[in-house]
Please model this.
Amino acid sequence: MTYNKDQFYMQQAIELAKLGCFTTTPNPNVGCIIVKDDQIVGKGYHQKAGEPHAEVYALQMAGDKAKQATAYVTLEPCSHFGRTPPCADALIKSGIKRVVIAMQDPNPNVAGNGIKRLKDVGIDVTVGVLSDQAESLNKGFLKRMRTGIPYVQLKLATSLDGKIAMASGESKWITSNIARSDVQQFRAQASCILSTCATVQADNASLTVRYAELPEEIKKIYHPENIRQPIRIIIDSQQRLTGQENVFKQQGETWVVRKQKIPIDRPNTKLIVESSAQNYIDLKQLLMILGEKQINSVWVEAGAHLAGALIEQNLIDELIIYYAPKLLGHNAMDMCILPNLYQLAFAPSFRFESAKMTGEDLRVILKK
Model:
């Protein structure tokens, strides 16, 4: 096959993989296309951890047509026994003659072993087709595998002059209904939503995915029961949460982060004790703990103090800002507090990734 044909079929595998973006965590999103005589004979994507991988679905659809065919996979086929058997072995048994892989899997349990296993039995293997697109499919999973720390996205809703609330604390609502609905897509894809006791108590926050506000194209694919509620993680270093807050009454899990082993007796509530020597929560240590707990991505919705601390400690991978066409003036609350910044040369900097109108507001995405 020509390289252009490889790109064509890999692009379709990538689009398939995207269908799992709301459901696969802690596993990666993976798509697979099987092609024989320039015809797609099998396709599949990974849908949920513990269920068959993309290659298995594609091979089941292809049946005997997989013999002497080419498989296009967005991530290196696994070579180890986890919740499911190795996909590399399934490809070998099917009689596939060629496997095109978008990128190698950095998971230490795989990390080239799947490619080696395929090559060792004489299968022709090509790696690196549309690798950049494949990389963007699994930003959280890939970062966790490479660094042990999840991918962190900080969301801010602000006025044009960078204010998130009036001096009184009033903040409902700076941005429009459309902008707030747009947030639901990001929440639904995140492994967890990180906030603070102060935000949860001040806003009576639920921190859930509101299915009714998801775009219609998503609701056509996913029924309400198939939309996973991200874990809610609340920093409570002063042990102020009572367990009566709205966040504890929602579907799904809530994790409370404290310095002391004082649990909250509520259903589906877990305690994380962050035991560094400081009298405050060590944010990098917390992210490492979350990585160990297989959290791929963290969506942050909190006030100026946590936002500033994450930015100041260089722990943000992506900044998502919703700008409302309003001015709140100097008495209003700033969107982030950076108490140790005194020189322009040391100002945290990002690069613009995209800008999009969401109703009357502007959504800007920036990356490090």
Remarks:
- Residues 206 and 225 are 18 Å apart (CA to CA).
